[in-house]
Specification:
Chain lengths: 239, 263
């Protein structure tokens, strides 16, 4: 099956999981799920299930990775072998390496690294169950876990992806929409400043469609930010 | 993994506690932490379990693949057990290839399950000599506060006992439950402050000496043993541990069985 062959949205604009174009999948957040870590967060987003844990600030070793004026962020994004329909062989691959890199760079934009010279903060993102959009869930969960660890930050990073299915722009792609859709635009929004710290895109969008997807992401990020703040205040969302 | 610096202070504290028959968290010598087991928690696994013992949390996920049977066993499928102790589970665990510790961990858990004969590999044959099911049990540490061995073994057997062979997905007929005829249970003991204790937590592991892992099947048959770390023990000590493992194993086995029947 190729692009456009799979009907994923009906004449009334209802998607295959019952959502309307602008709807986000159900989200729940729980803090402290890794009791031995300095901060942690489990985020369920649709059928995605992601754990983020923070260790540090701690001594950075080997010494060659130390920076005299700031801490280094050591970010690892990993998919557990049982997280997908076909088992994943354990170990780093090119995809997880790239996602780890861009996630680290997004988080570096908000973490006040200059407060911890010569130290290291470890950010571990583990995908336990995957259903499209794991990089967005991982980045959002990591920023909540950093806040839970008490690491000073200027903002959270809330990440969400919009895309295009059957020529309709929709928010927060699910698995079928991600596999058979025509475009995918993940963004990482800093909700307080409205800036972006993470941006990727692949597919085909007209200028109008691009603007629509952009607006969906911005609006969704603000709503999800509210969930994150509530979780940080009370330990979980929803209550 | 860097070698953890064991403060002499912790070891002497553990010795003092042992002399008064006490432990860091007020447990008695052979008392385990409270055990919580949840099944079917991973949406993309064909069988899964989450085990929590104090601050130790692990996941087990079962996946199935088709394989070509080994030439000397054309009518049998296979079982593979892998344990990962990734850096998410503790500050002492670093990224990189699997450490000797985590390889030992997965092999000891694997032997206990395999040698119990709980999985009939001939039941996994699809076409003799051509195609068979390979059962892959992946064990994943979320939070390591000691005794990953028992947590992994318990999550592993629970996940297997609740696994479904995804025959539909492979166009091989209807889905069917994986047949698991026994329930091997591992009990681990570590010498801490001079005497053996059950279910050591992270700090007891750090300040402890040798450990002994005993896997018992139904009817208390022994299926795997492992002695790890520096130290030596007497026959009398071992006899006592075997006796304890029988009692504790029965309790945990009943717990695993109580989670079944729903599916």
């Amino acid at each position: 099956m190729g692009y456009g062959d799979v009907q994923m949205i009906d004449a009334n604009g209802i998607r295959n999981d019952g959502r309307k174009a602008g709807d986000v999948r159900p989200i729940s957040i729980e803090l402290g799920v890794v009791p031995v870590a300095d901060g942690s967060c489990r985020m369920k987003w649709g059928a995605n299930d992601v754990i983020a844990a923070i260790y540090g600030p701690m001594e950075a070793h080997p010494r060659k990775i130390q920076r005299q004026d700031r801490a280094v962020l050591d970010v690892r994004y990993n998919m557990a072998p049982f997280s997908t329909s076909d088992r994943i062989r354990p170990g780093f691959n090119r995809r997880s390496r790239e996602i780890s890199k861009v996630t680290a760079e997004a988080l570096e934009s908000v973490v006040m690294l200059e407060l911890y010279p010569r130290s290291k903060i470890r950010v571990e993102i583990e995908i336990i169950c995957a259903e499209a959009g794991t990089r967005c869930v991982g980045l959002t969960a990591a920023s909540v876990a950093l806040a839970h660890a008490g690491i000073p930050m200027t903002d959270l990073v809330v990440s969400v992806a919009s895309g295009k299915i059957n020529d309709v722009v929709v928010c927060d792609l699910n698995k079928a929409e991600d596999n058979y859709g025509e475009a995918d635009l993940p963004m990482g929004v800093l909700p307080n400043s409205g800036e972006l710290a993470f941006l990727q895109m692949d597919g085909d969008l007209s200028p109008e469609e691009f603007q629509e997807a952009w607006d969906y992401n911005m609006n969704a990020a603000m709503v999800i930010h509210g969930y994150c703040v509530e979780a940080l205040k009370t330990g979980r969302y929803p209550q | 993994m860097s070698i953890p610096l064991v403060p002499q202070l912790l070891r002497s504290h553990l010795r003092e506690l042992a002399e008064n028959n006490q432990r860091l968290d007020n447990r008695s010598q052979f008392e385990g932490r409270d055990v919580e087991i949840e099944v079917g928690i991973l949406g993309n696994a064909e069988g899964s379990a989450r085990v929590r013992m104090g601050d130790t949390i692990v996941l087990a996920g079962v996946k199935f693949q088709t394989m070509t049977p080994y030439p000397d066993r054309p009518n049998e499928g296979g079982l593979m057990c892998m344990a990962e102790v990734r850096p998410v589970s503790g500050r002492q665990h670093e990224a990189g290839p699997p450490s000797a510790e985590s390889i030992e961990l997965s092999r000891v858990v694997d032997r206990g399950i395999r040698e119990s004969g709980c999985i009939d590999t001939s039941d996994l044959c699809i076409i003799p000599g051509e195609k068979a099911w390979q059962v892959i049990l992946d064990l994943f540490a979320v939070s390591d506060d000691g005794n990953l061995f028992d947590a992994f073994a318990l999550a592993g057997i629970t996940a297997l006992r609740n696994a479904i062979i995804p025959q539909e997905k492979f166009e091989l007929g209807e889905d069917r439950p994986l047949v698991v005829s026994k329930t091997p249970i591992m009990c681990s003991y570590q010498r801490v402050g001079g005497r053996f204790i059950f279910d050591a937590n992270g700090r007891e592991e750090l300040g402890g000496d040798e450990r002994i892992h005993i896997t018992l099947g139904d009817d208390n048959h022994v299926h795997s043993l492992q002695k790890g770390l520096k130290g030596a023990f007497t026959a009398a000590e071992f006899t006592e541990l075997m006796e304890e493992a029988r009692k504790k194993g029965e309790e945990l086995r009943n717990m695993v069985h109580s989670l079944e029947g729903g599916n």
